[in-house]
Predict the 3D structure of the following.
Amino acid sequence: MSVRIAIAGGNGRMGRTLIDLIQGNEELSLAAVTLAQNENVPEPAPVSAELYTHEIDVALSEADVLIDFTTPATIVVHAQACARAGVKWVVGTTGLDASEQAAVTAAAGEVAICQAANFSTGVNLMLRLVELATRASEGETDLEVIEAHHRHKVDAPSGTALAIGKAMAIGRDIDLDEHAVMSREGITGARVDGSIGFSTIRGGDIVGDHTAMFVSDGERLEITHRAGTRLAFARGACRAAAWLSEKPAGLYDMQDVLQLRD
């Protein structure tokens, strides 16, 4: 029996990619697609118009798992709706504030949730490599994260860039918030030892490029992931949904799905 999937934000770039992918997936079936209140069913619609709804509760009434790549503004409502309906939740929305993240964590007490900054298999392998490389590097190695995305992305640094920084911080056994340098401008002085720097690029239709740099005197190691299409993220989200369908309540991520934990 296939896992019934509701897609949040079916008219978005990721929503449309997920609709196409799920239709060819034997493990999953499309149960519902949500639209924003100001959106109409697209013409021509990629699936039956009857699957579209403006109401999250209606969408969840026919679903086992919600896949959600929308905006932080919807997170609290979706968290409460999934907990209320007993529907599991794949969360790919980034840029959450503390209260929005708290809503996700609270819902995980009721249903299984897989939350990740990036659902690409390649990126999650990169995160593991970054942590290992940081542990192996000498203390004086400078750590930098560079990310590039399309002109429409609204949060910076990207959730994936922050996840890379967190992997570096774990490898160094330090707190990212205390050591992150999010921007540099003007007379900044010398680089602070032990800091983790971030650089952000926005332009065109870049799907997502991320580089972790390990820079020391005489050598430089770079670990880079480049996404050419959103299919990598959609495939990972579908994989997470199938995996999540058999899990008890709790907060998981793609490292769990891919069994990359120690």
About this structure: The chain has a mean pLDDT of 95.
